[in-house]
Amino acid sequence: MLYEFTPKGVCSTHYEAEVSDAGVIESLSIKDGCNGNAKGVSALVKGRHVDEVIGLLDGIRCGRKQTSCPDQIAKMMAEVRDKIKQ
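RE: above sequence
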């Protein structure tokens, strides 16, 4: 299923993820932000379960910001996990 998310407090502006009913990330698209990092993170989360990605990325900060693109991806995946469990 396709999930969309608007991150807050970061340079990227929109995330789209295709996640299976079993919670495995099939793809992640990141709009704006650091192009190379976005492509790298997208490649690294592909094939992983949302719970694993949350554990890896939650709480990562970017400079003096209270969040980061990876942290926002973790927040997105937490929302996805909650929707899958419904």
